[in-house]
TrEMBL record, chain A:
Keywords: Mitochondrion, Ribonucleoprotein, Ribosomal protein, Transit peptide. Coiled coil: none annotated. One of its GO terms (cellular component) is mitochondrial large ribosomal subunit. It comes from Mesorhabditis belari. This is Large ribosomal subunit protein mL46. Belongs to the mitochondrion-specific ribosomal protein mL46 family.
Automatic annotation (TrEMBL), chain B:
InterPro entries: Ribosomal_mL40, Ribosomal_mL40_metazoa/plant. The keyword Transit peptide applies. This is Large ribosomal subunit protein mL40. GO terms for cellular component: mitochondrial large ribosomal subunit.
Length: 256, 190
Protein backbone atom coordinates (compact mmCIF):
# COMPACT_ATOMS: atom_id res chain seq x y z
CA UNK A 1 0.00 0.00 0.00
CA UNK A 2 2.77 2.43 0.94
CA UNK A 3 4.66 1.61 -2.22
CA UNK A 4 1.65 2.20 -4.43
CA UNK A 5 0.97 5.50 -2.70
CA UNK A 6 4.55 6.53 -3.29
CA UNK A 7 4.41 5.67 -6.97
CA UNK A 8 1.11 7.43 -7.30
CA UNK A 9 2.56 10.67 -6.08
CA UNK A 10 5.85 10.47 -7.91
CA UNK A 11 4.58 10.51 -11.51
CA UNK A 12 2.68 13.13 -13.45
CA UNK A 13 -0.20 11.75 -15.46
CA UNK A 14 -0.43 13.21 -18.94
CA UNK A 15 -2.90 12.52 -21.74
CA UNK A 16 -1.83 12.87 -25.35
CA UNK A 17 -3.92 12.70 -28.53
CA UNK A 18 -2.90 11.08 -31.79
CA UNK A 19 -5.04 13.20 -34.08
CA UNK A 20 -5.28 11.48 -37.44
CA UNK A 21 -6.44 12.36 -40.91
CA UNK A 22 -7.46 9.11 -42.55
CA UNK A 23 -6.40 8.50 -46.16
CA UNK A 24 -8.79 10.17 -48.60
CA UNK A 25 -7.98 8.16 -51.70
CA UNK A 26 -6.78 4.60 -52.06
CA UNK A 27 -3.07 4.16 -52.51
CA UNK A 28 -1.96 2.98 -55.96
CA UNK A 29 -1.60 -0.74 -56.54
CA UNK A 30 1.73 -2.34 -55.84
CA UNK A 31 3.52 -3.84 -58.91
CA UNK A 32 2.50 -7.37 -58.04
CA UNK A 33 -1.11 -6.35 -57.42
CA UNK A 34 -1.20 -4.68 -60.81
CA UNK A 35 0.30 -7.67 -62.58
CA UNK A 36 -2.13 -10.00 -60.87
CA UNK A 37 -5.07 -7.84 -61.81
CA UNK A 38 -3.92 -7.65 -65.44
CA UNK A 39 -3.64 -11.41 -65.52
CA UNK A 40 -7.10 -11.94 -64.04
CA UNK A 41 -8.64 -9.55 -66.56
CA UNK A 42 -6.89 -11.37 -69.39
CA UNK A 43 -8.08 -14.77 -68.20
CA UNK A 44 -11.61 -13.48 -67.80
CA UNK A 45 -11.64 -12.03 -71.28
CA UNK A 46 -10.31 -15.21 -72.81
CA UNK A 47 -13.03 -17.32 -71.26
CA UNK A 48 -15.86 -14.89 -72.00
CA UNK A 49 -18.22 -14.54 -74.94
CA UNK A 50 -18.30 -11.54 -77.26
CA UNK A 51 -20.74 -8.83 -76.25
CA UNK A 52 -22.97 -6.77 -78.52
CA UNK A 53 -20.47 -3.96 -78.85
CA UNK A 54 -17.71 -6.32 -79.90
CA UNK A 55 -20.04 -7.99 -82.42
CA UNK A 56 -20.77 -4.59 -83.88
CA UNK A 57 -17.05 -3.86 -84.09
CA UNK A 58 -16.51 -7.06 -86.00
CA UNK A 59 -19.32 -6.19 -88.38
CA UNK A 60 -17.88 -2.69 -88.82
CA UNK A 61 -14.56 -4.13 -89.83
CA UNK A 62 -16.15 -6.37 -92.44
CA UNK A 63 -18.13 -3.46 -93.84
CA UNK A 64 -15.07 -1.21 -93.96
CA UNK A 65 -13.16 -3.90 -95.83
CA UNK A 66 -16.04 -4.22 -98.26
CA UNK A 67 -16.15 -0.48 -98.74
CA UNK A 68 -12.44 -0.33 -99.48
CA UNK A 69 -12.87 -3.14 -101.98
CA UNK A 70 -15.74 -1.40 -103.72
CA UNK A 71 -13.83 1.87 -103.86
CA UNK A 72 -10.79 0.14 -105.24
CA UNK A 73 -12.80 -1.39 -108.05
CA UNK A 74 -14.57 1.92 -108.63
CA UNK A 75 -18.08 0.63 -107.96
CA UNK A 76 -21.06 2.40 -106.51
CA UNK A 77 -21.18 2.59 -102.70
CA UNK A 78 -24.96 2.76 -102.53
CA UNK A 79 -25.35 -0.82 -101.31
CA UNK A 80 -23.65 0.14 -98.04
CA UNK A 81 -26.03 3.05 -97.53
CA UNK A 82 -27.06 3.48 -93.89
CA UNK A 83 -24.84 0.68 -92.65
CA UNK A 84 -21.69 2.59 -91.81
CA UNK A 85 -23.17 5.72 -90.36
CA UNK A 86 -21.83 5.46 -86.83
CA UNK A 87 -19.01 3.03 -86.41
CA UNK A 88 -17.86 1.77 -83.05
CA UNK A 89 -14.55 3.48 -83.55
CA UNK A 90 -16.28 6.85 -83.71
CA UNK A 91 -18.30 6.04 -80.62
CA UNK A 92 -15.25 4.96 -78.68
CA UNK A 93 -13.37 8.09 -79.63
CA UNK A 94 -16.26 10.20 -78.43
CA UNK A 95 -16.48 8.33 -75.15
CA UNK A 96 -12.75 8.63 -74.53
CA UNK A 97 -12.83 12.33 -75.26
CA UNK A 98 -15.66 12.77 -72.79
CA UNK A 99 -13.83 10.77 -70.14
CA UNK A 100 -10.71 12.88 -70.63
CA UNK A 101 -12.77 16.03 -70.32
CA UNK A 102 -14.29 14.83 -67.05
CA UNK A 103 -10.93 13.88 -65.60
CA UNK A 104 -9.50 17.24 -66.61
CA UNK A 105 -12.44 19.33 -65.41
CA UNK A 106 -12.77 17.67 -62.04
CA UNK A 107 -9.04 16.99 -61.58
CA UNK A 108 -9.75 13.34 -60.87
CA UNK A 109 -6.17 12.25 -61.41
CA UNK A 110 -4.71 14.68 -58.97
CA UNK A 111 -2.84 13.01 -56.16
CA UNK A 112 -1.25 16.11 -54.64
CA UNK A 113 2.05 14.29 -54.28
CA UNK A 114 3.86 17.55 -54.88
CA UNK A 115 2.26 19.28 -51.91
CA UNK A 116 5.20 20.08 -49.66
CA UNK A 117 3.33 22.26 -47.17
CA UNK A 118 3.19 20.22 -44.00
CA UNK A 119 0.37 22.34 -42.66
CA UNK A 120 -1.95 21.42 -45.50
CA UNK A 121 -4.54 18.73 -44.94
CA UNK A 122 -4.64 18.13 -48.69
CA UNK A 123 -1.17 16.60 -48.85
CA UNK A 124 -0.42 12.91 -49.35
CA UNK A 125 -4.03 12.04 -50.03
CA UNK A 126 -3.41 8.30 -49.96
CA UNK A 127 -1.59 8.28 -46.63
CA UNK A 128 -2.62 8.42 -43.03
CA UNK A 129 -1.44 11.68 -41.49
CA UNK A 130 -0.86 12.48 -37.84
CA UNK A 131 -0.70 15.90 -36.23
CA UNK A 132 2.61 16.71 -34.55
CA UNK A 133 3.14 20.00 -32.76
CA UNK A 134 5.59 22.14 -30.82
CA UNK A 135 3.72 23.18 -27.75
CA UNK A 136 4.24 26.31 -25.63
CA UNK A 137 2.67 25.01 -22.40
CA UNK A 138 1.61 28.50 -21.42
CA UNK A 139 5.06 30.08 -21.75
CA UNK A 140 5.49 32.64 -24.47
CA UNK A 141 9.09 32.08 -25.49
CA UNK A 142 9.14 28.31 -25.11
CA UNK A 143 8.52 25.71 -27.79
CA UNK A 144 8.75 22.04 -26.95
CA UNK A 145 10.43 19.55 -29.27
CA UNK A 146 8.20 17.94 -31.90
CA UNK A 147 5.66 15.69 -30.25
CA UNK A 148 2.01 14.71 -30.23
CA UNK A 149 -0.19 17.30 -28.49
CA UNK A 150 -0.48 16.58 -24.78
CA UNK A 151 -1.84 18.02 -21.58
CA UNK A 152 -1.51 17.25 -17.90
CA UNK A 153 -4.30 15.42 -16.11
CA UNK A 154 -6.36 17.41 -13.61
CA UNK A 155 -7.92 16.07 -10.45
CA UNK A 156 -11.48 14.93 -10.90
CA UNK A 157 -11.57 14.16 -14.59
CA UNK A 158 -11.12 10.87 -16.38
CA UNK A 159 -8.22 10.36 -18.72
CA UNK A 160 -10.54 10.47 -21.70
CA UNK A 161 -11.84 13.85 -20.56
CA UNK A 162 -8.25 15.03 -20.28
CA UNK A 163 -7.67 13.94 -23.87
CA UNK A 164 -10.76 15.83 -24.97
CA UNK A 165 -9.54 18.92 -23.13
CA UNK A 166 -6.20 18.51 -24.89
CA UNK A 167 -7.95 18.61 -28.27
CA UNK A 168 -9.83 21.70 -27.17
CA UNK A 169 -6.59 23.43 -26.17
CA UNK A 170 -4.75 22.62 -29.36
CA UNK A 171 -7.40 23.08 -31.99
CA UNK A 172 -9.61 25.99 -32.74
CA UNK A 173 -12.20 26.00 -35.46
CA UNK A 174 -15.04 23.68 -36.25
CA UNK A 175 -13.61 20.23 -35.91
CA UNK A 176 -15.59 17.02 -36.29
CA UNK A 177 -13.50 14.57 -34.34
CA UNK A 178 -14.06 11.64 -32.07
CA UNK A 179 -11.73 10.06 -29.60
CA UNK A 180 -11.76 6.30 -29.92
CA UNK A 181 -12.50 4.45 -26.72
CA UNK A 182 -12.10 5.20 -23.04
CA UNK A 183 -8.89 3.26 -22.72
CA UNK A 184 -5.51 4.69 -23.76
CA UNK A 185 -3.88 2.85 -26.67
CA UNK A 186 -0.32 3.21 -25.47
CA UNK A 187 1.96 4.67 -22.84
CA UNK A 188 5.31 6.42 -22.77
CA UNK A 189 7.30 7.02 -19.63
CA UNK A 190 9.24 10.26 -19.63
CA UNK A 191 11.82 10.80 -16.88
CA UNK A 192 12.43 14.39 -15.88
CA UNK A 193 16.02 15.60 -15.76
CA UNK A 194 17.34 15.68 -12.19
CA UNK A 195 16.85 19.38 -11.37
CA UNK A 196 13.28 19.32 -12.65
CA UNK A 197 12.59 16.09 -10.81
CA UNK A 198 13.84 17.56 -7.56
CA UNK A 199 11.97 20.77 -8.03
CA UNK A 200 8.68 19.06 -8.87
CA UNK A 201 9.31 16.13 -6.54
CA UNK A 202 8.26 13.78 -9.34
CA UNK A 203 10.18 11.11 -11.20
CA UNK A 204 8.70 12.06 -14.50
CA UNK A 205 5.53 11.84 -16.54
CA UNK A 206 3.51 8.91 -17.75
CA UNK A 207 2.02 9.91 -21.07
CA UNK A 208 -1.12 8.03 -22.10
CA UNK A 209 -2.07 8.15 -25.78
CA UNK A 210 -5.55 8.30 -27.23
CA UNK A 211 -6.49 7.83 -30.87
CA UNK A 212 -8.71 10.40 -32.52
CA UNK A 213 -9.82 10.43 -36.16
CA UNK A 214 -10.82 13.67 -37.78
CA UNK A 215 -13.57 13.91 -40.33
CA UNK A 216 -12.12 15.12 -43.64
CA UNK A 217 -14.78 17.81 -43.92
CA UNK A 218 -13.90 19.59 -40.71
CA UNK A 219 -12.31 23.01 -40.71
CA UNK A 220 -9.00 22.60 -38.94
CA UNK A 221 -7.16 25.45 -37.27
CA UNK A 222 -4.63 25.40 -34.47
CA UNK A 223 -4.78 27.47 -31.35
CA UNK A 224 -1.94 29.94 -31.99
CA UNK A 225 -1.45 30.83 -28.33
CA UNK A 226 -0.65 27.23 -27.43
CA UNK A 227 0.99 25.87 -30.57
CA UNK A 228 4.29 27.25 -31.79
CA UNK A 229 4.46 25.06 -34.87
CA UNK A 230 2.62 22.09 -36.30
CA UNK A 231 2.63 19.65 -39.17
CA UNK A 232 0.67 16.78 -40.65
CA UNK A 233 3.09 13.92 -41.14
CA UNK A 234 2.94 10.45 -42.61
CA UNK A 235 4.62 7.48 -40.96
CA UNK A 236 8.11 7.94 -42.47
CA UNK A 237 8.20 11.66 -41.81
CA UNK A 238 7.01 11.03 -38.27
CA UNK A 239 9.79 8.53 -37.72
CA UNK A 240 12.34 11.09 -38.88
CA UNK A 241 10.95 13.91 -36.76
CA UNK A 242 10.40 11.96 -33.58
CA UNK A 243 12.95 9.48 -32.30
CA UNK A 244 13.71 7.02 -29.57
CA UNK A 245 11.30 5.24 -27.29
CA UNK A 246 8.65 7.92 -27.81
CA UNK A 247 8.39 6.90 -31.46
CA UNK A 248 8.30 3.23 -30.53
CA UNK A 249 5.49 3.72 -28.07
CA UNK A 250 3.15 5.24 -30.68
CA UNK A 251 4.11 3.35 -33.80
CA UNK A 252 0.97 1.20 -33.64
CA UNK A 253 -1.06 4.35 -34.18
CA UNK A 254 -0.04 4.20 -37.81
CA UNK A 255 -2.28 1.69 -39.47
CA UNK A 256 -0.30 1.01 -42.65
CA UNK B 1 -41.62 -34.37 -12.85
CA UNK B 2 -42.22 -37.41 -10.75
CA UNK B 3 -45.95 -36.83 -10.74
CA UNK B 4 -46.12 -36.53 -14.48
CA UNK B 5 -44.14 -39.66 -14.99
CA UNK B 6 -46.29 -41.71 -12.68
CA UNK B 7 -49.43 -40.30 -14.31
CA UNK B 8 -48.21 -41.25 -17.75
CA UNK B 9 -47.36 -44.76 -16.69
CA UNK B 10 -50.73 -45.22 -15.01
CA UNK B 11 -52.51 -44.06 -18.17
CA UNK B 12 -50.57 -46.59 -20.18
CA UNK B 13 -51.59 -49.30 -17.74
CA UNK B 14 -55.24 -48.32 -17.98
CA UNK B 15 -55.11 -48.25 -21.75
CA UNK B 16 -53.61 -51.70 -21.94
CA UNK B 17 -56.07 -53.08 -19.50
CA UNK B 18 -59.06 -51.67 -21.36
CA UNK B 19 -57.82 -53.33 -24.53
CA UNK B 20 -57.30 -56.57 -22.69
CA UNK B 21 -60.80 -56.37 -21.34
CA UNK B 22 -62.19 -55.96 -24.82
CA UNK B 23 -63.61 -52.50 -24.34
CA UNK B 24 -63.85 -50.43 -27.51
CA UNK B 25 -64.80 -46.83 -27.98
CA UNK B 26 -66.02 -45.26 -31.15
CA UNK B 27 -67.54 -41.95 -32.16
CA UNK B 28 -71.25 -41.63 -31.64
CA UNK B 29 -73.07 -42.41 -34.89
CA UNK B 30 -76.41 -41.14 -33.88
CA UNK B 31 -78.12 -39.60 -31.01
CA UNK B 32 -81.46 -38.15 -30.15
CA UNK B 33 -80.01 -34.71 -30.35
CA UNK B 34 -78.76 -35.01 -33.93
CA UNK B 35 -80.83 -33.72 -36.80
CA UNK B 36 -82.46 -36.42 -38.79
CA UNK B 37 -81.03 -36.80 -42.24
CA UNK B 38 -83.47 -36.39 -45.08
CA UNK B 39 -83.67 -39.37 -47.29
CA UNK B 40 -82.66 -38.40 -50.82
CA UNK B 41 -83.22 -40.22 -54.02
CA UNK B 42 -79.91 -42.03 -54.84
CA UNK B 43 -80.19 -40.86 -58.47
CA UNK B 44 -80.29 -37.21 -57.49
CA UNK B 45 -77.51 -37.74 -54.97
CA UNK B 46 -75.35 -39.23 -57.68
CA UNK B 47 -75.97 -36.25 -60.01
CA UNK B 48 -75.16 -33.85 -57.22
CA UNK B 49 -72.02 -35.73 -56.45
CA UNK B 50 -70.88 -35.55 -60.08
CA UNK B 51 -71.69 -31.86 -60.25
CA UNK B 52 -69.71 -31.17 -57.10
CA UNK B 53 -66.74 -33.09 -58.44
CA UNK B 54 -66.83 -31.24 -61.77
CA UNK B 55 -66.93 -27.93 -60.00
CA UNK B 56 -63.91 -28.85 -57.92
CA UNK B 57 -62.01 -30.05 -60.96
CA UNK B 58 -62.76 -26.81 -62.75
CA UNK B 59 -61.50 -24.83 -59.79
CA UNK B 60 -58.32 -26.86 -59.65
CA UNK B 61 -57.74 -26.23 -63.34
CA UNK B 62 -58.24 -22.50 -62.86
CA UNK B 63 -55.88 -22.43 -59.95
CA UNK B 64 -53.19 -24.31 -61.85
CA UNK B 65 -53.51 -21.89 -64.72
CA UNK B 66 -53.09 -18.80 -62.56
CA UNK B 67 -50.87 -20.35 -59.97
CA UNK B 68 -48.10 -18.21 -58.55
CA UNK B 69 -45.11 -18.04 -60.82
CA UNK B 70 -41.74 -18.71 -59.24
CA UNK B 71 -39.58 -15.65 -58.77
CA UNK B 72 -37.04 -15.76 -61.59
CA UNK B 73 -33.35 -15.92 -60.77
CA UNK B 74 -31.78 -13.39 -63.08
CA UNK B 75 -28.33 -14.89 -62.75
CA UNK B 76 -29.35 -18.22 -64.22
CA UNK B 77 -32.04 -17.00 -66.57
CA UNK B 78 -31.09 -17.32 -70.24
CA UNK B 79 -30.81 -14.09 -72.16
CA UNK B 80 -32.80 -15.13 -75.21
CA UNK B 81 -31.62 -12.28 -77.40
CA UNK B 82 -27.98 -13.16 -76.86
CA UNK B 83 -28.59 -16.88 -76.98
CA UNK B 84 -29.91 -16.66 -80.52
CA UNK B 85 -26.54 -15.83 -82.01
CA UNK B 86 -24.40 -17.51 -79.42
CA UNK B 87 -22.34 -19.27 -82.06
CA UNK B 88 -21.14 -15.86 -83.28
CA UNK B 89 -20.05 -14.87 -79.85
CA UNK B 90 -17.32 -17.38 -79.22
CA UNK B 91 -13.79 -16.08 -79.10
CA UNK B 92 -10.81 -17.60 -80.70
CA UNK B 93 -9.42 -20.30 -78.40
CA UNK B 94 -6.23 -19.12 -76.81
CA UNK B 95 -3.52 -21.72 -76.40
CA UNK B 96 -0.87 -20.56 -74.00
CA UNK B 97 2.74 -21.32 -74.66
CA UNK B 98 4.57 -23.05 -71.89
CA UNK B 99 6.35 -19.83 -71.06
CA UNK B 100 3.10 -17.88 -70.76
CA UNK B 101 1.54 -20.53 -68.56
CA UNK B 102 4.62 -20.50 -66.33
CA UNK B 103 4.49 -16.75 -66.12
CA UNK B 104 0.86 -16.81 -65.00
CA UNK B 105 1.55 -19.41 -62.37
CA UNK B 106 4.48 -17.38 -61.11
CA UNK B 107 2.37 -14.24 -60.87
CA UNK B 108 -0.31 -16.11 -58.94
CA UNK B 109 2.30 -17.50 -56.57
CA UNK B 110 3.98 -14.19 -56.03
CA UNK B 111 0.63 -12.56 -55.38
CA UNK B 112 -0.19 -15.27 -52.89
CA UNK B 113 3.10 -14.66 -51.10
CA UNK B 114 2.51 -10.91 -51.02
CA UNK B 115 -0.93 -11.44 -49.42
CA UNK B 116 0.65 -13.77 -46.92
CA UNK B 117 3.25 -11.18 -45.97
CA UNK B 118 0.60 -8.55 -45.67
CA UNK B 119 -1.51 -10.76 -43.46
CA UNK B 120 1.47 -11.45 -41.21
CA UNK B 121 2.19 -7.74 -40.92
CA UNK B 122 -1.44 -7.06 -40.03
CA UNK B 123 -1.38 -9.82 -37.47
CA UNK B 124 1.81 -8.49 -35.96
CA UNK B 125 0.32 -5.00 -35.85
CA UNK B 126 -2.79 -6.22 -34.04
CA UNK B 127 -0.74 -8.16 -31.48
CA UNK B 128 1.53 -5.17 -30.93
CA UNK B 129 -1.40 -2.79 -30.52
CA UNK B 130 -3.08 -5.10 -28.00
CA UNK B 131 0.18 -5.49 -26.10
CA UNK B 132 0.69 -1.71 -25.97
CA UNK B 133 -2.80 -1.10 -24.70
CA UNK B 134 -2.50 -3.80 -22.06
CA UNK B 135 0.76 -2.29 -20.92
CA UNK B 136 -0.77 1.18 -20.73
CA UNK B 137 -3.74 -0.08 -18.74
CA UNK B 138 -1.52 -2.01 -16.34
CA UNK B 139 0.56 1.11 -15.68
CA UNK B 140 -2.58 3.16 -15.22
CA UNK B 141 -3.85 0.66 -12.69
CA UNK B 142 -0.77 1.06 -10.54
CA UNK B 143 -0.87 4.86 -10.89
CA UNK B 144 -4.53 5.36 -10.17
CA UNK B 145 -7.10 2.59 -9.72
CA UNK B 146 -9.89 5.10 -10.13
CA UNK B 147 -8.70 6.27 -13.55
CA UNK B 148 -8.23 2.64 -14.52
CA UNK B 149 -11.84 1.85 -13.64
CA UNK B 150 -12.97 4.76 -15.81
CA UNK B 151 -10.71 3.71 -18.68
CA UNK B 152 -11.96 0.14 -18.92
CA UNK B 153 -15.59 1.16 -19.16
CA UNK B 154 -17.35 0.46 -22.45
CA UNK B 155 -17.45 3.33 -24.89
CA UNK B 156 -20.68 2.90 -26.83
CA UNK B 157 -20.58 6.48 -28.07
CA UNK B 158 -19.40 5.84 -31.59
CA UNK B 159 -20.92 2.44 -32.20
CA UNK B 160 -21.76 1.26 -34.78
CA UNK B 161 -18.62 2.71 -36.29
CA UNK B 162 -18.95 3.29 -40.02
CA UNK B 163 -15.94 4.11 -42.17
CA UNK B 164 -16.40 5.34 -45.75
CA UNK B 165 -13.76 4.97 -48.39
CA UNK B 166 -11.05 5.62 -49.25
CA UNK B 167 -12.29 6.13 -52.80
CA UNK B 168 -10.18 5.96 -55.94
CA UNK B 169 -10.38 9.71 -56.57
CA UNK B 170 -10.50 12.61 -54.19
CA UNK B 171 -13.84 14.35 -53.66
CA UNK B 172 -14.59 17.14 -56.11
CA UNK B 173 -14.62 20.51 -54.39
CA UNK B 174 -17.78 22.59 -54.82
CA UNK B 175 -19.38 19.91 -56.96
CA UNK B 176 -22.88 20.85 -57.98
CA UNK B 177 -24.81 17.64 -58.47
CA UNK B 178 -27.47 17.63 -61.19
CA UNK B 179 -31.09 17.81 -60.10
CA UNK B 180 -33.12 14.66 -60.01
CA UNK B 181 -34.69 11.98 -57.90
CA UNK B 182 -33.71 8.44 -57.33
CA UNK B 183 -36.29 6.11 -58.82
CA UNK B 184 -36.37 2.70 -57.26
CA UNK B 185 -36.56 0.21 -60.13
CA UNK B 186 -36.43 -2.89 -57.99
CA UNK B 187 -39.07 -5.36 -59.14
CA UNK B 188 -41.42 -6.66 -56.50
CA UNK B 189 -42.91 -10.13 -56.34
CA UNK B 190 -46.13 -10.78 -54.52
Amino acid sequence: MRVSMLTRTSWDIVASVVLQRAPIIASPMSPIERRYQDMLLKVEKESSLLNDHELKSKKDQLLLAKKAELEASGKDLSELEGELEVTNLMKEQEWNARADRLVKNYKLNERNDGEKDEKSLQRLLDRQLVLVVRQKFGQKQYASPWKLPEIEHRQGETLRQTAERCLGEVVSGDLAVQIQGNAPVSIYTFRYPKPVAQKKNKNGAKIFFYNAVMSPKSDFQVNKSEIADFGWLCAEEFNQRVTGDYRKSVHTCFLE
Amino acid sequence: MFHLKSLASSIRVIGQRSLENGFHTSAACSSVFMKRQKKIDPEIAKVREIRKRKKLEREIREMQKHSKKVKPVDEIALDIKSAKNIHERTRKQVTLTEQQADERTLIAKEYCRSRNTQMRHDDQWIRQALYMQKKALAELKTLSPHLYEEAVKNDLGNLPHIIDGPALTSPVKNYDPPDGDYVDTTRTWT
